[in-house]
Specification:
One of its GO terms (molecular function) is telomeric DNA binding. The protein is mainly α. The chain has helices at residues 14-19, 30-50, 57-72, 81-97, 112-146, 158-176, 178-181, 198-209, 230-234, 257-277, 300-307, and strands spanning 101-102, 108-109, 225-226, 250-251, 284-287, 292-295.
């Protein structure tokens, strides 16, 4: 084991990483891993911001993403709600710093730093959505068991409540900046990982949350109590989100406010899915018969994998 949290001799290959969910178990304490993850995350942004040391970017990014992936699998969530929102905001800001160069009206050329900034941000978002989809599936099963007519089961469990503000705020950024992330940036080279299927896992999350029974929560524009999300207050006036459409959703005074906030986050993600369907180059396609969203785009690495029979099995 190195002092940066990596395991000497362990492959960085995506498949092995996914099949070895306990990669860090017994090697380092959770606190040490959080410490190493934080240092690696800061170091990556330092490379992107200063445009120096990029020769070691790929390996360091792979290391940080695998640490992030492992930490997200812990329950209770090891990250605070505000901490995750702040990481998403830092990622958005870095993309703005490395903004694209317009060669002509119709041609956009990304610099290496913008491409890497997008890759880092979207891969972290993809890891969030991948783990969120797994947690929602478990939560829906548990919810169906404990739900009763007298007291509806909570919309989200504690893990989902920690993660959804950051998911919501990053989809807000994607709403404001569709031209920035389309086409999808190249992910890390094939021999490095992880390589989250960003749009597939996002579609899965949205398809799952649409099935959550929210009929006991009233949301509308002419009710009594405003539903204001903490992440919206925290990032109010943040430049990358300035063009986000405002909403004035309200609820009734007898509705639990935390539940109303969870419901509002679901509404915002569902709006985002519809928005992706309506783009000039659609990112999502809505299947009317199945009532589900499906990605219309794939990253290069996932397109190649889908064409290869050897990669049909996870």
């Amino acid at each position: 084991k190195r002092t940066d949290g990596t395991i000497v001799g362990r492959s960085l290959d995506d498949g092995q990483s996914n099949n070895s969910q306990n990669e860090f178990d017994g090697c380092v304490s959770q606190q040490e891993l959080i410490h190493w993850f934080t240092l690696n995350y800061i170091a990556l942004h330092g490379k992107l911001y200063t445009k120096t040391g990029m020769e070691s970017y790929t390996e360091l990014c792979s290391r940080m993403l695998r640490q992030f992936q492992y930490l997200l699998r812990q329950d209770p969530c090891v990250f605070g709600k505000q901490q995750l929102v702040q990481m998403m905001a830092i990622n958005m800001y870095q993309i703005e710093v490395a903004k694209q160069v317009n060669v002509s009206v119709d041609i956009v050329v990304r610099s290496q730093y913008e491409e890497s900034s997008l890759q880092l941000s979207l891969d972290m978002f993809g890891l969030l959505t991948e783990q969120t989809s797994l947690i929602i599936e478990r939560h829906l099963k548990a919810r169906s068991v404990i739900s009763n007519a007298d007291k509806p089961a909570p919309i989200f469990n504690s893990w989902l409540r920690h993660v959804f503000p950051s998911l919501k705020i990053f989809t807000d950024w994607m709403t404001c900046n569709a031209n920035s992330f389309i086409p999808l940036p190249d992910q890390l080279p094939a021999e490095f990982g992880p390589h989250p299927d960003i749009l597939m896992s996002l579609a899965k999350v949205i398809n799952l949350i649409r099935t959550i029974d929210r009929t006991h929560i009233q949301l509308g524009s002419n009710l009594t109590t405003p539903v204001i999300l903490e992440e919206d207050i925290e990032l109010s006036g943040f430049y990358p989100l300035l063009t986000l459409p405002a909403d004035t959703l309200q609820t009734t005074s007898d509705t639990p406010l935390d539940e109303a906030k969870d419901c509002k986050r679901i509404v915002r993600l569902c709006f985002f899915a519809d928005y992706l369907c309506g783009l000039k180059q659609p990112v999502f396609i809505y299947n009317v018969q199945q009532k589900t969203y499906h990605p219309a785009l794939k990253s290069v690495i996932h397109s190649e994998r889908s064409k290869s029979p050897a990669n049909d099995n996870p």
